[in-house]
Design goal:
The complex is a heterodimer.
Chain A lengths: L2 H14 L4 E17 L2 E19 L2 E7 L4 H17 L15 E6 L5 H18 L3 E19 L4 E19 L2 E2 L3 E7 L12 H10 L10 E7 L5 H10 L2 H6 L19 E3 L22 E5 L2 E2 L6 H7 L11 E3 L6 H6 L3 E5 L1 E4 L7 E7 L2 E4 L2 E5 L4 E5 H6 L3 E8 L4 E12 L1
Parallel strand pairs in A: 4-6, 9-14
Antiparallel strand pairs in A: 1-2, 1-5, 2-3, 5-6, 6-7, 6-8, 9-21, 10-11, 10-13, 11-12, 14-17, 15-16, 16-19, 17-18, 19-21, 20-21
Chain B lengths: L6 H5 L5 E16 L2 E19 L2 E7 L4 H21 L13 E5 L9 H18 L5 E17 L4 E18 L5 E11 L2 H4 L7 H14 L8 E7 L1 H13 L4 H5 L19 E4 L2 E2 L2 E2 L16 E5 L2 E2 L6 H6 L8 E2 L8 E2 L3 E4 L6 H6 L3 E7 L3 E2 L5 E6 L1 E6 L2 E5 L3 E6 H4 L5 E2 L4 E3 L3 E4 L1 E4 L1 E4 L2 E7 L3
Parallel strand pairs in B: 4-6, 8-17, 16-27
Antiparallel strand pairs in B: 1-2, 1-5, 2-3, 5-6, 6-7, 8-28, 9-12, 9-16, 10-11, 12-13, 14-15, 17-20, 18-19, 19-22, 20-21, 22-28, 23-28, 24-27, 25-26
The chains are: A alpha+beta, B alpha+beta.
Chain lengths: ~425, ~450
């Protein structure tokens, strides 16, 4: 049975089962993944999958189910299960599916993996690490290429096709010298071409160099209040608090500290954040939101001012606020005007935060955690890598108090961030 | 899942190879302030093959399991292994050829309940909270069920079948403090078994809810913890997290080979002599545990891995390859999350064993410290430095419990911190509410007694 035949049969069966609104997403994927462990390329994986996600609304009751066996018996059973699930659902007028939009086919990225290039890039990276960082152990390094063909169809007439292929790669490493061991560190990126050697992506060359330094660490002498320089690799822990608090869960619950914050300052005026699903440069670009609505690029925070929430269709219907024009990811931070060296030179006492290992912040934004792969800064100089060092503060305050943004950035292929500096954190 | 005749197919392969048929079935129901915001199911299954050639692995997976799909994955896995093995052979050339067979089915024997019934159950729990605690700012009740069903055949002669289910109910509550700010807490209730075996009468959860609200109200008046190196009593929940994060990950043999500090510490004192730690395969003292693994995904009989005995580091958790590399015994720790995942070294039921003390004596022995009761998440490091969040805790002053403390994080170097342990309670708790993340997700359980020790506290 072809994709279209399967979709049409499924739509008919769901209508016959009593669903008045139906949305289907049928995805066929093929993945090729090359794995390195302990400096050996020792695993090649090939994976095929299909996935059919069916969402049905019947008399304002909603249920959703996904399955990857698409024979007629499995699909019939899934629709029967969906009916049982929907019957148990309370009625809610906020449930909906994507509105009618012009049919369109989107093609992004590469269609096929270049397996030879994947092998060459990975083996060159292993050699680079061996030759340049002999005390560093590449614990794990993975390159994969995944191609998806996805159809999104619904009873409102939506009919989209998305063809998308991209490479993803990451490396995780630890250094050992004598009896000393560094913290592990890692970085990764997305790409449509693998055009650069891996060490030249996602700041990997610099992180490998730092890993060798980090076998010898020191504890800070005593607790102090100082500056935090957040590297691009640690940025998601901070930006993520903002995005999650303007999304469905916290907004519907009414517990978000940003619940009435649109058109007000939520960060320092030095910060501007764009969400770019339709980027022509990011490998993780996407044409449709999770609801199946054509996505648009937006500026989420403009010089500190929050422009919009990140509510999906249900969240928007539930709160009466506007629906977001994208899913809030593919975040691009505008580069600042401060050279990174100057940004660090402006720190009297503080921490360069390479990686944050901490508990999830509470609803107020209070957080604490361990500064991993991080350095102590004093009088504008990076002095030594630290261990057993905790950072405590409030994320909302950190974002509001940012007093410098670097000109330099790291592009991860799915986001791009600068280094930022914020004062007033407790370091212990 | 319909079982397939895999044996004949896998025996035709050269060298070590395995075929695995697997289906994961999950459901999720969540109410947010009474609104149903999740009512989902997922069924994901298929066949995978993995083949070993010249020290390299080939793997392939397909979402169907008919003869054509099986032949397709066998060929692709073998081709992938040969492609790598011919270009650059791996270090480990021979795997330990131990076989094991058995069927371990933990499917509920009770009548299957409908999805409607499960939603009604969650709504009853939610209604109790709404009726009895109307001043709460927000409430979320989430039910998750998970079945993991596997059939395995490998060239070492293993034939295995397992169906391991677990059910989890999470209650998240938010109250407002005196400054109008949100203060939140959550309680997970998790059990081995399907919904029918784990959740019967919603009223059995009411005391759990009452207790959660009581602590939450105290937390609305919480004070900041004092940052620094502090004497603390960890509840069994936190001790279990410590066992998993701080010691468990550093003693997974692949991470040891990748540079974990534990590799240099075998047969050395890494903890006080009252500390014993084990990754249990399926049972403890004859009692079945929450994630019972009898046969792993390489067809190896799952055995307990003793990690620390009387404070001395004794060994690691292994798969076939790492056991061959370290020339040691198999432990059966190779586990894969879905049909399309390769087996990795994963924990099962990791615990610190109980001691001889009781909680009251432990608290009364602390002059100035904290009793830390609940955690949200944790992470480990190759250095054995760990951290985990603390979502509920109290001051201890002169042996007495004091004020509630705000959310914080604790950390330490496990193999230093464990040397400060001087008391362990004579009872223990287990929970299986979370996933372990390591390339793939994996259900695990953790357990432990109350533990008195010294750690770094985050705070003011």
């Amino acid at each position: 049975m072809s994709q279209d035949q399967l979709i049409n049969a499924c739509l008919d069966k769901m209508k016959a089962a009593g669903f008045d609104r139906v949305q289907l997403e049928l995805d066929e994927s093929e993945k090729h993944e090359l794995n390195q462990q302990h400096s050996e390329i020792n695993l090649l994986r090939t994976g095929f999958n299909t996935n059919l996600q069916i969402t049905g609304i019947s008399d304002s009751r909603r249920a959703s189910l996904s399955l990857n066996r698409l024979d007629s018996e499995s699909v019939d059973q899934a629709i029967a299960d969906l009916s049982d699930m929907a019957e148990g659902s309370p009625q809610d007028d906020a449930y909906d599916i994507a509105p009618n939009q012009p049919a369109e086919e989107f093609t992004l990225g590469a269609e096929q993996a270049d397996a030879g290039l994947m092998y060459d890039r990975l083996s060159a990276f292993i050699e680079y690490t061996k030759n340049n960082h002999p005390t560093t152990i590449l614990e794990e390094a993975v390159i994969d290429f995944t191609h998806h063909k996805t159809r999104i169809v619904n009873s409102n007439g939506v009919n989209f096709t998305v063809n998308q292929g991209a490479y993803n790669a990451y490396a995780m490493f630890t250094s050992k010298s004598g009896g000393d061991t560094s913290s592990f560190n890692y970085s990764g990126f997305s790409s449509t071409t693998l055009e650069k050697e891996l060490q030249h992506e996602a700041h990997l060359a610099e992180l490998l160099k730092q890993s060798e330094e980090q076998v010898k660490t020191r504890q800070i002498a005593k607790k102090f209040t100082g500056d935090l320089v957040i590297t691009p690799h640690a940025m998601d822990d901070f930006i993520g608090f903002l995005t999650s608090n303007i999304s469905d869960g916290q907004m519907i619950a009414g517990t978000s500290i940003y619940k009435e914050a649109v058109n007000t300052a939520v960060t320092s005026p030095l910060l501007t954040l764009h969400c770019q699903p339709r980027s022509t440069t990011l490998a993780s670009a996407y044409p449709l939101t999770g609801d199946g609505i054509v996505a648009q690029n937006t500026t989420l925070v403009n010089k500190g001012i929050l422009n919009s929430y990140l509510l999906n269709q249900f969240g928007a219907n539930k709160t009466g606020l506007p629906i977001a024009l994208n899913d809030g990811d593919n975040m691009i931070m505008d580069a600042g005007e401060t050279e990174l060296d100057d940004l660090i030179a402006g720190v009297e006492k503080g921490i360069l935060l390479g990686r944050f290992s901490g508990g999830s912040p509470n609803d107020k934004g209070d957080f604490s955690g361990v500064a991993k792969n991080s350095y102590y800064i004093e009088n504008g100089k990076i002095l030594y890598p630290v261990s057993e060092t905790m950072v405590s503060g409030n994320i909302a305050s950190v974002l509001k108090e940012v007093n410098a943004v670097s000109r330099q950035q790291v592009d991860f292929g799915n986001c791009a961030y600068s280094w930022i500096r914020s004062p007033g954190l407790v370091i212990s | 899942m319909n079982k397939q005749p895999l044996t004949g197919l896998v025996r035709d392969l050269n060298g070590y190879a395995e075929l695995r048929l697997q289906e994961n079935r999950n459901s999720s129901i969540m109410l947010l302030n009474g609104d149903l915001v999740a009512n989902n199911k997922q069924i994901k299954g298929g066949i995978s093959a993995r083949s070993f050639y010249q020290g390299c692995w080939g793997f392939a997976s397909y979402p169907e399991a008919d003869e054509s799909a099986i032949n397709k994955v066998i060929k692709a896995a073998a081709d992938n292994a040969k492609l790598l093995g011919k270009r650059a052979p791996g270090h480990v050339q021979q795997l330990i050829p131990a076989g094991f067979s058995g069927e371990f089915d933990f499917t509920s024997k009770r009548p299957v309940v409908s999805s409607q019934h499960k939603i009604e159950y969650v709504r009853s729990v939610d209604a109790y909270i709404a009726d009895n605690y109307p001043d709460l700012m927000a409430r979320r009740v989430m039910l998750r069920t998970e079945d993991m069903e596997k059939q395995l055949s490998c060239t070492a002669g293993s034939e295995g079948y397992s169906m391991i289910p677990r059910s989890m109910l999470y209650i998240f509550l938010t109250a407002e403090n005196g400054q109008g700010e949100p203060v939140d807490m959550f309680e997970p209730v998790s059990e081995r078994g399907q919904f029918e075996d784990c959740f019967d009468d919603p009223a059995s959860l009411y005391p759990v809810i009452d207790n959660l609200v009581e602590h939450l109200m105290k937390k609305t008046e919480a004070v900041s913890a004092q940052a620094g190196f502090k004497e603390v009593v960890l509840s069994g929940e936190l001790t279990g997290m410590l066992a998993h994060e701080a010691v468990g990950h550093t003693t997974e043999a692949d991470l040891v080979r990748g540079g974990s500090v534990a590799g240099d510490l075998v047969d050395q004192q890494v903890a006080s002599s009252i500390v014993n730690m084990v990754d249990f395969a399926h049972s403890m003292n004859g009692e079945l545990l929450q994630v019972p693994v009898h046969i792993d995904d390489e067809g190896v009989e799952a055995r307990d891995a003793v990690l620390i005995e009387q404070g001395v580091l004794k060994g690691f958790m292994h798969n076939r390859e790492s056991a061959a590399f370290y020339d040691t015994e198999l432990t059966g720790n190779a586990r894969a999350f879905t049909f399309s995942d390769e087996p990795l070294i994963r924990m099962r039921n990791t615990a610190v064993l109980p001691g001889n003390d009781n909680l009251e004596d432990m608290i009364s022995s602390v002059e100035d410290g904290y009793y830390l009761m609940k955690t949200g998440n944790g992470q480990a490091d190759s250095t054995s430095e760990f951290m985990f969040s603390v979502t509920l805790g109290y001051e201890i002053k002169n042996g007495q419990l004091g004020r509630s403390i705000q959310d914080t994080t604790i950390s330490g170097i496990a193999f230093d911190m464990l040397k400060t342990v001087d008391m362990l309670s004579d009872d223990m708790v287990w929970n299986c509410s979370g996933y372990c993340g390591k390339k793939q997700m994996m259900p695990v359980s953790v357990g432990g007694p109350d533990m008195k020790c010294k750690v770094n506290m985050g705070g003011q």
